[in-house]
Amino acid sequence: MKKRLLTVLAAGVPLAAAVYLPTASAEPQTTSTATPSTCATPSVKAPAGTKVEAVTAVRQPGGTIHGTGVQQGTADNVPAFCDVTVTLTHPGVGDHAKVQTWLPETGWNGRFQALGGSAFLAGDNGVGMANAVKAGYAATTTDAGVGDALDVSWVLNSKGQVNNALLKNFASRSQHEAAVVGKDVVDGIYGKRAAYSYFTGCSTGGRQGYMEAQQYPDDFDGILAEAPGINWDEFEPATLWPQVVMNNEKTYPTGCELDAFTNAAVKACDKLDGATDGLVNDPSRCDFDPRTLIGTKVVCNGQELTITAADATVVRKIWDGPRTTSGKKLWAGVPIGADLKGLAFSEPDPNGDIKGKPFQVPQYWVQYFLKKDPSFDVSKITYSQFTELFRQSQAEYDKVIGTDDPDLSGFRNSGGKLITWHGQADQFIPTQGTVQYRKQVEQELGGSKKVNDFYRVFLSPNTSHCGLNGIDGSADGLAALTNWVEHGKAPKTLPATLTNSQGEQVNRDLCAYPEVSSYNGEGDTSLASSFRCVAPSRH
């Protein structure tokens, strides 16, 4: 599935790929004869524990669909569709979660697709839904009764406590309820149920896909969970670590200097796969020492800067990842090769002093969910306080939104298939979290070979957060997933178009984890045929 990433400037900080716009590119392989005779309001049965408050059905002419919220975006040439909105509530809670299902007026391919969200947005903003309809899918999404991608106004109640009902909606149950309602609406409008059901999502949406596989294994035949925000309770505070480092070291490298470290690391580690092609195929082997750049001159906006030992210390700590004051590793750092400016952003204040500008998602996580104080100044967090916040996040939220249960036996037994791709230059969600989870599933379910029967992970070189959705290249994960689910053809590789460090597009077959890509020794390095998948080197 190709998706388009939209960079949003919010409060001067790129919201970048944590907010993305999903589309659906898989060509329909079959066309259902079922078409809605009229866009009439269907009868909808309330999912367990809910009450249906309202149901509306409106025929939409299609054309150009404009995305809502900070993501915006557009989808053109959308065919006419029936827009059914079901509002659910959990009695006694006072929530109002809207489930939207869009059903193409003609050309339905017989499939159902639910779409996930991004950042604090629980569902799609309309562009992904529109593109799914263009591809012939009946598409469903939910707002879970919460707000837009950077809207956390719902988190604290009037008593200053976390609204646990809405948090539960956002974390887990609303996606399941949307699946139940969406399928019911499809049946009510078309007069038949979908032949196959799929879930697609990146970032927050990726986490939601894993939550479905873990807690509601019968909801979907296939799940495409990209750059997933699993281990949410850990990676969220961990992504504030670069700001904590800069504030405590009182050193704020410029964007030009940060790029110099990244470019030097990529150059040093590029050749480790046997080819100098602008891609680092196995970052785990990259041990570039940032101290080698001390004294290097960098020209930034016409000004010559000299990289200092303090700059190198900051970058080393960011790459290494959060640790306790005694040196115990808490979580993975920003991957070598990823854009350090995503989380280590800084800018002058009105007085001209350089200050860190944190990425809003982890900032809000700390302020609203941990401190329960929107005015809390995250720039004052010490190293020891960071450890306390990290541990608090684990203790309070792992069971609620951690989404790291390795027991996928229910999903496996239901016949479900799960595909994940994750960029190895993901600046917001460390790739290592996905790798660690995959290893835990293997340990739980009897090894790599057994897990590969239903769950495969593909790591993508030089790819940023959700970057294969159109920023750093593309890969049609949805096509691979439908082929696996409907024809039993498990993807040995995931064909992709990547962008190397020189900005050139190259073709690669992403290898199924744990294998990595290695140059054959001859042939054009822009072609996938010049590489093969091999076991990673031990070092």
Automatic annotation (TrEMBL):
One of its GO terms (molecular function) is metal ion binding. Pfam families: Tannase. Residues 25-45 are annotated as: Disordered. Residues 25-43 have a biased composition (Low complexity). Residues 1-26 form the signal peptide. Keywords: Calcium, Disulfide bond, Hydrolase, Metal-binding, Serine esterase, Signal. Belongs to the tannase family. This is Tannase. It comes from Streptomyces brasiliensis.
